[in-house]
Structure formats: C-alpha cells, structure tokens
Fold:
Amino acid sequence: MPLRDQIRAFILENFILEKPDDLKDDESMLEKGIMDSTGVLELVAFLESTYEIKVEDEELIPENLDSIKSIVSYLERKLAQASRPQEEQAPASQA
Structure:
C-alpha cells in the first residue's frame, strides 16, 4: 500500500471526520479541527512505530505534519535519510 494510502487509512481510523470522503490530501487537518495536539502525538507514535523513524522535537511543525501531503513528503525524506549509509549522514570532518 502506498504511503499516502497508509497515512490516510490511519487518519480515517483514528480521527473523527464528518465526511471522510471530503478529506483532501493538501487540507490542513489542524485548521479543519480534524487533529489537535493530542492527535499530533498519536500520529507521531504511529509514524515512529510503523516506519521505525525518530521524529525530532524540531520536526513537530505544521509544515511536516499538518496534511496528508505534508506527512507523506516528510516521511519520504525521513525514510530516504534513514536508508543512506552512515558515512553519508555523518557531518564532514574538519581536516
């Protein structure tokens, strides 16, 4: 199942929506009242346990977690970063 469908399924299963079919991928779930701060924590727990990533405190921003589209983009970046070899992730040494 594509990431978008997995995220959408999680949101539909865990948050109350009057009309689930009206949920748009680029719609702000915070502004629409679909998700609150507790919901963000539930989403983070889901992302960390399902995809074995660590969501850092500084990454808890609407640009990463506010809509299905932003969550998928964030997750794709995190998964790509996690799949790189350790040498590429380490900062360049000061020689």
In short: Residues 68-83 form the longest helix (16 residues). The two ends are 45 Å apart (CA to CA).
